């Protein structure tokens, strides 16, 4: 971006992000929203004029982690004070939303508490805190659209793959989960706004876009044609942007996995064969207590349908062990379901009672040692199926989108269509391109391969983005 002569003197901003990809997206947008006020990002907390902790509340000790992190921030602030400099401190994200005033009361070092629906007000809050020294808490769910208010992403950063939030909040109220309380009611951005954002990203050289939402497949927007757009309609439209080569979306709820979306996996080559579809538990009794709105059988039927549309699809999931009342038998049903589906990737967690959620009040809490044991045996099974999926790709030729440098000199790193990390020896100039790679080996967490010698660069890498 061109430097404007009247640009305010550069101040430094440090953001530490916890939690999900939506928080990562929000952190980027906060940094962009603060740019006009002269804030430049720094990786060093010690030199920051403004520190933002973007927090997560999903599992245990999340709030405690924030307070201990604040202890570290306080030390940085004191060190800067000794040099005669001020540091402003903001807590954002889901702990900010859930704890609000309590953070201000417990942590005198905090100047601003701002919930995820109020980030468009951040610049104003920072300016107010700087001029008045007053501490503020902004955790309303305002009626206005925060995305419309946040500035468009400025050009200037080279990025191959980008996240775009299309839907936020959740109306599902699974009994264990804080998200409906921290992110509010389900809300979809308009297709016009999303298409414009993706087109801007494409113009900057982005080749892959991952659409984000707590329940992304519940997306429903008012299309420019007057019709209601589903996630499938949105993906179809985005696939029409020539330089966007890959589309992904996450996270989906089984209940909202409609036929149009399933069929798209078989129809749209730009939609990558990877789907994150949490099932949480294999026992119908536990699924009902979780208020998941599907049975184990519904889930397996759905998986069969998806595999029919796209047989090679990599499935990923989330699973909770030790939900209140879960017996050994219930847990074995979880193991059995995971064993039958055979996930390419999975995230598994011990149930953690979250304040304010219905499940936290249930009496039959599972003791910690049982949770620990169940998690270990589940993870052994998931690990085995992940490695076996990776092994199946050895010997295949896969298109890899290169995103950055590798771990060793001379190496670059990218992703297969199945979201596996792939390392090859190749020139850095290939970053931003897709090349066919012959996969030669599967390591514990990544694949290695060799670029097809007949590879011809499709187009020059966009220079100096
Ligand atoms: N919206 C997504 C997931 C959001 S949270 C969905 O519905 O699938 C990400 C994952 O964290 C959840 O899928 C769940 O497995 C886990 N999780 C959420 N609350 C939890 C809790 N109280 N204890 C343990 N794991 C939890
Ligand atoms: Fe939480 Fe359930 Fe909503 Fe997912 S669907 S965000 S697990 S309440
Ligand atoms: Fe955490 Fe909030 Fe995301 S609780 S997982 S940061 S929606």
TrEMBL record:
Needed cofactors, names only, are:
[4Fe-4S] cluster
Q: Where is the TRAM domain?
A: 391-453
Q: Which reaction does it catalyse?
A: N(6)-dimethylallyladenosine(37) in tRNA + (sulfur carrier)-SH + AH2 + 2 S-adenosyl-L-methionine = 2-methylsulfanyl-N(6)-dimethylallyladenosine(37) in tRNA + (sulfur carrier)-H + 5'-deoxyadenosine + L-methionine + A + S-adenosyl-L-homocysteine + 2 H(+)
Q: How is the cofactor bound?
A: Binds 2 [4Fe-4S] clusters. One cluster is coordinated with 3 cysteines and an exchangeable S-adenosyl-L-methionine.
Molecular function (GO) terms for this protein are: 4 iron, 4 sulfur cluster binding; metal ion binding; tRNA-2-methylthio-N(6)-dimethylallyladenosine(37) synthase activity
Radical SAM core domain boundaries: 156-390
Q: Which domain of life is it from?
A: Bacteria
Q: Name one GO cellular component term.
A: cytosol
Localisation: Cytoplasm
Chain residues that bind [4Fe-4S] cluster 1: 20, 56, 94
Q: What is its EC number?
A: 2.8.4.3
- What top-tier enzyme class does this entry carry? transferase
Concerning CDD domains, the annotation shows: Radical_SAM
Q: Which intervals hold domain MTTase N-terminal? A: 11-131
Keywords of this entry: 4Fe-4S, Cytoplasm, Iron, Iron-sulfur, Metal-binding, S-adenosyl-L-methionine, Transferase, tRNA processing
A Pfam short name = Radical_SAM
Annotated residues that bind [4Fe-4S] cluster 2 are located at 170, 174, 177
* Annotated family: Belongs to the methylthiotransferase family. MiaB subfamily.
Q: Which HAMAP family match?
A: tRNA_metthiotr_MiaB (MF_01864)
Tell me, how does this one assemble? Monomer.
Physiological role: Catalyzes the methylthiolation of N6-(dimethylallyl)adenosine (i(6)A), leading to the formation of 2-methylthio-N6-(dimethylallyl)adenosine (ms(2)i(6)A) at position 37 in tRNAs that read codons beginning with uridine.
Protein name per Swiss-Prot or TrEMBL:
tRNA-2-methylthio-N(6)-dimethylallyladenosine synthase
Origin organism of this chain? Methyloceanibacter superfactus
Lineage, uppermost ranks? Bacteria, Pseudomonadati, Pseudomonadota, Alphaproteobacteria, Hyphomicrobiales
């Amino acid at each position: 971006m061109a430097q404007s002569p009247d640009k305010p003197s550069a101040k430094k901003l440090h953001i530490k992000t916890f939690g999900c990809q939506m928080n990562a997206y929000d952190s980027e947008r906060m940094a962009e929203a603060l740019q006009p006020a002269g804030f430049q990002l720094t990786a060093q907390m010690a030199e920051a004029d403004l520190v933002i902790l973007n927090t997560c509340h999903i599992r245990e000790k999340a709030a405690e982690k924030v307070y201990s992190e604040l202890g570290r921030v306080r030390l940085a602030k004191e060190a800067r004070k000794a040099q005669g400099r001020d540091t402003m401190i903001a807590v954002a994200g889901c702990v900010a939303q859930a704890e609000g005033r309590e953070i201000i009361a417990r942590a005198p070092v905090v100047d601003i508490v701002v919930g995820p629906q109020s980030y468009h007000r951040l610049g104003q809050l920072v300016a107010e805190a700087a001029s008045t020294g007053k501490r503020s808490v902004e955790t309303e769910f305002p009626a206005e659209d925060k995305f419309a208010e946040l500035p468009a992403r400025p050009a200037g950063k080279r990025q191959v793959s980008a996240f775009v939030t299309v839907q936020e909040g959740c109306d599902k109220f699974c009994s264990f989960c804080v998200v409906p309380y921290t992110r509010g009611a389900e809300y979809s951005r308009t297709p016009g706004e999303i298409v414009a954002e993706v087109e801007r990203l494409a113009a900057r050289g982005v080749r892959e876009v991952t659409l984000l939402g707590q329940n992304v497949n519940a997306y429903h927007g008012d299309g420019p044609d007057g019709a209601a757009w589903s996630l499938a309609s949105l993906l179809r439209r985005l696939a029409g942007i020539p330089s966007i080569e890959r589309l992904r979306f996450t996270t989906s709820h089984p209940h909202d996995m409609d036929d149009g979306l399933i069929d798209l996996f078989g129809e749209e080559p730009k939609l990558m064969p990877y789907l994150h579809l949490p099932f949480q538990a294999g026992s119908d009794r536990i699924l009902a207590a979780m208020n998941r709105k599907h049975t184990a059988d519904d889930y397996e039927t759905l998986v069969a349908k998806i595999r029919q549309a796209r047989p090679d699809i990599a499935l990923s999931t989330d699973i909770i062990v030790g939900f209140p009342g879960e017996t050994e038998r219930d847990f074995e049903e979880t193991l059995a379901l995971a064993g039958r589906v055979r996930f390419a990737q999975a995230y598994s967690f011990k149930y953690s009672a979250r304040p304010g959620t219905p499940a936290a009040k249930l009496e039959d809490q599972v003791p910690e040692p049982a949770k620990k044991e169940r998690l270990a045996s589940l993870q052994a099974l998931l690990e085995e199926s992940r490695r076996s999926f990776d092994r199946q790709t050895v010997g295949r030729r896969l298109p890899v989108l290169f995103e950055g440098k590798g771990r060793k000199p001379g190496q670059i790193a990218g992703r297969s269509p199945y979201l596996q990390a792939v390392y090859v020896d190749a020139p850095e100039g290939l970053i931003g391109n897709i090349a066919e790679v012959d996969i030669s080996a599967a390591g514990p967490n990544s694949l290695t391969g060799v670029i097809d010698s007949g590879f011809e660069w499709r187009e020059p890498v966009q220079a100096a983005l």
